[in-house]
Design brief:
This protein has one domain. About 20% of the residues lie in helices and about 35% in strands. It is built from 3 helices and 5 strands. The chain has a 5-stranded mixed β-sheet. A hairpin with a 2-residue loop joins β4 and β5. It is globular and about 35 Å long. The termini are far apart.
Amino acid sequence: MLTKHPNLQSPDSVESGKPDLQSCFRAAGLPHAVTFSPRLAARCGWLESPAQGVDPYVIAWASRLVLTGQWLHRRCQTQYGEVLLVEFPAFVTPKETINLSLGILVENYRRLKLVDSDELDQPVAK
């Protein structure tokens, strides 16, 4: 189960009271500009307005662990480039957890694209 690391900052909140993904990644210590697929946003509940859903800080923190080699993941080559595939439990409500599968496309050092891994084509051989 993911827990907060003591030296991580709290993300800034926006008008809705919920932090946005960019501030979550900055708070997690990653300098990346992040984009995410609409399908992932829908699955995490980020598109609905007072909705409950996956905390974007959890996504940012899990991504940080993957990018620093501290969370089990696998690499695969797709038509979009190399993708890091990861699965982790994420709270939707205090009583409901989903197993979230995430694809992290590292477009360059400061740009990431996050997608639901079901959106990716089958990996091609390197």
